[in-house]
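I am writing to request your help with a piece of structural work I have in hand. The matter concerns a single protein, recorded as an amino acid sequence and a row of C-alpha cells. Could you please explain, in whatever detail you think fit, how the C-alpha cells follow from the sequence? Thank you for your consideration; the sequence and its C-alpha cells are set out here:
>
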Amino acid sequence: MFGEGILVRPSSETRWQVEEESTKYIIELLESMGYEILEVYLHKPNPYDIKARAPDGSVKYIEVKGHKPLVFTASLDDRQTRFGEEHPEDYIVCVVANMAKPREQWRYICKPYRD
C-alpha cells in the first residue's frame, strides 16, 4: 500500500501531548510501586523528567520517552547522556510505546542507564 514504511515527524503539539501522557503514565506506575514523586520537569531543559524517591529512600532521576507506535527506542541528547554517565545507578530511562492504541494496550520498559 502507498505510504507504508514512511515515518512522518509529528507536530510539536503532538510530541508535547505524547510527552505529557507518557510521563503521567510513568508517574502513576511509580506511585503504585511506592515511589514518592519529588519533582516533574515537563517541557523544561532538564536531563530527566521526573525526580522521585524510591521505597528504599534513594533518589532516582527518570527520563521518559513516549512513542505512538509499538517502538522501544530512546535517543538521549548530550545532556541526558552525560547525566546518565554521572548517575548510572540512579538514572532510569522509561519508554512508553503503543500510545496510538487505547491506554490498556500501552506497553512500557524502564531500565537503569548502566544497563
Q: What stands out?
A: The chain has one domain: 12-112. Residues 12-112 form a domain with the Trna Endonuclease; Chain: A, domain 1 fold (CATH 3.40.1350.10). Residues 12-32 form the longest helix (21 residues).
